[in-house]
């Protein structure tokens, strides 16, 4: 069996925040939105239905806890959860807190505006804010 490896594009565009029982929790490097990504550590899995039943149930629990925590912490108007995979085929599920006044509202965030990377100090601050995620499981 091949060891899990994060897709190179995800590795380049994100920061690792936590390691949960099934998934890597990643922060998207775009300061315009609170945007985290769950990546199940299962090599070769492209679609959610390819996970085992146990892994799907674990993913649902992780997604639910992440979504609730994000909305409690960031107080958004809506939580977008999506698994597109058109540019990165490795299964990864976006969790994006949306606000009625965010730059892409009410449309999807993809293709609306270029990403605005965090500055070093902003990244340090958001990583500190996200620290409780390390202990959510």
From TrEMBL:
Highest taxon of the lineage: Bacteria
Family matches, as Gene3D superfamilies: HIT-like
A GO MF term: catalytic activity
InterPro entries: HIT-like, HIT-like_sf, HIT_Hint
Coiled-coil segments on the chain, per record: none
Signal sequence range: none
Domain HIT: 3-105
The name this protein goes by in its record: HIT domain-containing protein
Native source species: Hydrocarboniclastica marina
């Amino acid at each position: 069996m091949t060891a899990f490896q994060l897709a190179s594009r995800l590795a380049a565009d994100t920061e690792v925040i936590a390691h949960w029982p099934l998934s890597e929790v990643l922060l998207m490097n775009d300061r315009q939105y609170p945007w985290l990504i769950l990546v199940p550590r299962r090599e070769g899995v492209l679609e959610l239905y390819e996970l085992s039943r146990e892994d799907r149930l674990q993913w649902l629990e992780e997604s639910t806890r992440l979504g609730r925590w994000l909305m409690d912490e960031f107080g958004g108007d809506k939580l977008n959860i999506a698994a597109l995979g058109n540019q990165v085929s490795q299964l990864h599920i976006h969790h994006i807190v949306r606000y009625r006044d965010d730059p892409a509202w009410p449309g999807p965030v993809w293709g609306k505006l270029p990403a605005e990377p965090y500055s070093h100090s902003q990244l340090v601050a958001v990583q500190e804010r996200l620290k409780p995620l390390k202990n959510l499981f």
